[in-house]
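quick q for whoever's on today - can somebody do inverse folding on this one?? i tried earlier but teh output was garbage lol. tokens:
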């Protein structure tokens, strides 16, 4: 199951790398040939997506490594760290696009972009939206924060391409109407793209930082885990359950109460069943740490009046 997950995640990352290289080259060459600042900015955005997809691929491969002495809980946080790299790249590119557009507006625009720029942007919008939908669904399916972050990069590129589409189209309309002021719509669109990129980059940075920390699942998110443990034969009560996110997977810390009259071996066997059940039923649970307590009838977990002999054991 885990191996299949990594193969699908790697394939998704490679789709992003190949697609973005093709789009960056197409938009860069056509943008340069047609003198479109908006299309050049859009090409730069796609080029940043290439670096982002490479960072995601590195993070996915690192998270695949097994636990070792220095990383006893595995390398799952490599993916959210990779998504931080992606987010920072977005911020840097957003600033670059903004500076370039302001310079173009300041120095003036003498002519509108060529018609081919309009066609290139239209193709870019279709391709980037398709890549977003594919990667976002794959990221949600595989619980990969890095893939989801990279998918949102594609969506931000769709927005930037739409802005470039309006800018280039407006500038071409200005040429048709003989209004040179409309030529400025092209660099203005580039400036608008930079704002979109910066906004998206900031949001992803904050989400990625949140994911790298030991975040405990909310009560409603851990409810299914709790209900599963409570149904296991031999478990009288669940004293405490904490599920914390560790990259794309979850580590569960749990305290259970069992019949105080059973043997240590029986208590150990119950704990083993709890661990196996959780890891088999929930594929995102990578490890379970269990503390076994003797059930205290004076503490109101279930039935305070139950006699000790009535406690369930592993055997009945």
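ok took a stab at it. sequence:
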């Amino acid at each position: 199951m885990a191996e299949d997950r990594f193969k699908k995640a790697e394939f998704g990352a490679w789709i992003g790398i190949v697609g973005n290289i093709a789009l960056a080259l197409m938009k860069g060459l056509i943008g340069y040939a047609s003198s479109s600042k908006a299309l050049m900015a859009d090409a730069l955005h796609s080029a940043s997506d290439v670096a982002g997809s490479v960072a995601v691929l590195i993070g996915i491969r690192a998270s695949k490594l097994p636990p070792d002495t220095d990383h006893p809980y595995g390398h799952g946080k490599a993916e959210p760290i990779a998504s931080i790299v992606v987010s920072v790249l977005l911020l840097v590119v957003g600033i670059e696009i903004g500076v370039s557009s302001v310079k173009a507006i300041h120095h003036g625009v003498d002519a509108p972009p060529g018609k081919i720029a309009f066609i290139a942007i239209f193709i870019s919008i279709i391709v980037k939206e398709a890549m977003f939908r594919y990667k976002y669904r794959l990221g949600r399916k595989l619980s990969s924060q890095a893939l989801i972050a990279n998918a949102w990069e594609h969506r931000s590129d769709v927005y930037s391409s739409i802005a470039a589409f309006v800018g280039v189209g407006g500038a071409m309309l200005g040429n048709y109407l003989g209004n040179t002021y409309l030529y400025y719509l092209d660099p203005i669109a580039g400036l608008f793209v930079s704002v979109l990129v910066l906004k998206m980059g900031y949001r992803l940075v904050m989400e990625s930082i949140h994911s790298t920390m030991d975040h405990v699942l909310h009560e409603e998110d851990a409810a299914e885990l709790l209900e599963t443990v409570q149904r296991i034969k031999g478990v009288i009560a669940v004293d405490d359950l904490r599920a914390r996110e560790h990259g794309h997977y979850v580590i569960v810390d749990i305290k259970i109460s069992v019949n105080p009259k059973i043997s240590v071996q029986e208590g150990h066997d119950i704990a083993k069943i709890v661990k196996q059940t959780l890891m088999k039923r929930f594929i995102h649970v990578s490890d379970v740490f269990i503390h076994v307590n003797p059930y205290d009838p004076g503490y109101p977990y279930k039935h305070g009046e139950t006699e000790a002999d009535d406690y369930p054991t592993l055997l009945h």
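fwiw The beta strands are 215-216, 237-246, 249-258, 285-294. also The mean pLDDT is 75. so keep that in mind when u check it
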